[in-house]
Amino acid sequence: MLDFTFYSPTEFVFGKETETQTGQLAKKHGASRVLIAYGGGSAVRSGLLDRVKASLDAEGLSYVEMGGIQPNPTEGKVYEGINIVRREHIDFLLAIGGGSVIDTIKAIACGAYYDGDFWDFYIGKAKVTKAMPIGVVLTIPAAGSEGSGNSVITNSVTKQKLGIKHPMILRPRFSVMNPQLTVTLPAWHTASGICDMMVHILERYFTNTPNTEVGDRMCEGVLMACINEGRKVMADPTDYDARANIMWCGTVAHNGTCGVGCEEDWSGHQMEHELSAMFDVTHGAGLAVITPAYMTFMAEHNPKRIIQFAQRVFGVTEDEVKPTALEFNDLDTAVALEGISRFRKFLHRDLKLPVRLGQLLPDLTEAEIKAAIPALVDNLHKNKGETFGAFYPITREVSEQIYRLAL
Q1: Do residues 56 and 34 lie in contact, with contact meaning Cβ atoms separated by under 8 Å?
Q2: If you average pLDDT over residues 375-385, what whole number do you get?
Q3: How many helices (H) and strands (E) does the chain have?
Q4: Which of 142, 104, 133, 139 is closest to 10 using CA atoms?
């Protein structure tokens, strides 16, 4: 286990009708003039925006609105938000939505204090040293951005989808989490969110750091909760307790607790980001395709954690796979591949997500998808270097193999 510093100051207010406390929380954390950011209109149609505004009014807080933030958020809304902050003398940022809205707010939070282009932070040209305070009213459990110091933005000009990580600076001051707000989510968004949070855990679980028993057991427990509660919520979208458990899973998956004391690896996310940047696919759905392919490669090249995942999370036993093991002449490989198979079945059968590139990109032929792989590889290594990855070195040859395994 590695030495670590863990800092997580976010105040989580969880439960029914908690959005009515937003004004009190914003005032408590120093707000006087607020920029409210939200997405495509569900916050308006559901009445959530009005309830939040009423809570701000009750505390005497003024506000300006900025709607229209889309999934896979791009730089345009960040620039718009920075201009609003400066023009309207905003001193607090409030996101109503999921990861796309929260990540946009975080980019605005650091860009508003910077004389240059906020994109400098995402390409490593500048370092974030301070940011505006942020609050969140969460509507989509998935990205975990309500409790993390991370932000991911797509540059629509350069076709780069890049992230920053500043847990000491960019964690929200508070996050309001009402599971009731997620009951009307389309099944696709619910399922994609569950996959996203599971992969957030796996990026920490797939580590070469030894003696991480506490972190391992936390990861495994939350993964199993995602599976159990995910099945419940897909069967009955109105199940409040399942919704509540899934919502908290998303936060725990990405607020750092599952990765304390280990070297994390985000290769799967980085490979999916290139898919999102090129084809504008839903992030969680892209991960449902890339992650099993990544794990299949690792079953041969760095299998220990894949075997442990298969045994502890999906309950694979050696006795179950002995007949299959003869095919591979390797019992461990058979265990690992059976675990991956069960994971893929959960994603596809229970969550109804694509698990192959052809399913993710139905408008493209297999030949067209294959033809895009060299560009995906080029873009990936242009952004991440010729070799990256903490769990296993991802070279051009390796990344191409993984993309092809996703076919």
Answers
A1: yes
A2: 96
A3: 17, 8
A4: 133
Contact 306, 341 (CB under 8 A): no
Nearest CA to 296 among 250, 386, 356? Answer: 356
Helix, strand, coil % (nearest 5) of the chain? 55, 10, 35
For residues 219 and 227, give the distance between their C-alpha atoms in angstroms, rounded to a whole number.
12
168-189 pLDDT tens trace: 999 999 999 999 999 999 999 9
Q: Hey, what's the torsion of the CAs at 335, 227, 252, 18, to 10 degrees?
A: 180
> How far is Cα 283 from Cα 291, in angstroms, rounded to an integer?
12
Q: The pTM is what? A: 0.94
Using CA atoms, how far apart are residues 132 and 169, in angstroms rounded to an integer? 9
Distance from C-alpha of 158 to C-alpha of 381, rounded to nearest angstrom:
14
CB-count burial class (<10 Å; 0-12, 13-18, 19+) for 3: exposed
Nearest to 348 by CA among 406, 401, 288: 288
Residue 33 has phi, psi (to 5 degrees) of -135, 120
- For residue 152, give Cα distances in angstroms to 102, 108, 158, 270, 282: 10, 12, 15, 11, 14
CA 36 to CA 316: how far, in whole Å? Answer: 47
Is residue 325's pLDDT more than 80?
no
Average pLDDT of the residues in 82-102: 97
Long-range contacts of 290-295 (CB under 8 A, 24+ apart): 290/402, 290/406, 291/195, 291/199, 291/202, 291/343, 292/340, 292/343, 292/344, 292/347, 292/355, 292/406, 293/402, 293/403, 293/405, 293/406, 294/267, 294/268, 294/402, 294/405, 295/336, 295/340, 295/343
- Of 152, 153, 218, 197, residue with least CA distance to 6: 218
Q: Sign (positive/negative) of CA torsion 126, 127, 129, 130?
A: positive
pLDDT tens digits for 198-229? 999 999 999 999 999 999 999 999 999 999 99
Residue labelled with tokens 């569900």: 42
Find, among 197, 200, 201, the residue nearest to 312 by Cα: 201
First to last CA, the chain: 36
Integer Cα distance of 186 and 191 in angstroms: 9
Overall size of the chain counted in residues: 407
Closest CA to 384 of 235, 277, 291: 277
